[in-house]
Amino acid sequence: GAGVSQTPSNKVTEKGKYVELRCDPISGHTALYWYRQSLGQGPEFLIYFQGTGAADDSGLPNDRFFAVRPEGSVSTLKIQRTERGDSAVYLCASSLNPNYEQYFGPGTRLTVT
Amino acid sequence: GDSVTQMEGPVTLSEEACLTINCTYTATGYPSLFWYVQYPGEGLQLLLKATKADDKGSNKGFEATYRKETTSFHLEKGSVQVSDSAVYFCALTTSNYQLIWGAGTKLIIKP
Fold this sequence. Notes:
The structure holds 2 protein chains of 2 kinds. By secondary structure, chain A is mainly beta.
């Protein structure tokens, strides 16, 4: 079956621009997670959705970052006024429910110039 | 707060050598422990997991035992192959479900 997909795979944007990153979880998975991975480091938690609601957004670095999951399936991570420090690989994962294994997508590589 | 520390890489071994990648953790409560692997050009995949003390996770010839007394979850394999070359991440979850990750260890296996 289809795994977690993320689009685009690569995004290059200029400093100050707005970007949206999309995640399609595995069908039927109620939990969805966003992580950010900088070069040479492990992923860093950003936000976790259970259904349509953000159950834990404690990892979002500041109010430029926002994520939605309006119908409990696809999620969009939105970054306003991008900064060069936002450059990283943004990973999405989903799980059947929060106690189960998280399956990861291939990531979106964001480069802010 | 909760954290994971794993040995720095790269680790370079010859084919058929024994592998140990050290991982220790700090956590409140009773975490579940994981090893994920990232092969070149691919996404993160769960390699193995253990959910309680003394559990042993195993997969593809890799093993790791949840040691509460030493707060460790070392990854081991008796005979590595070139195809095992990848970056390995140790991680934990606690009650809030988010994964807390180590920095990753790059493993290079030479023929």
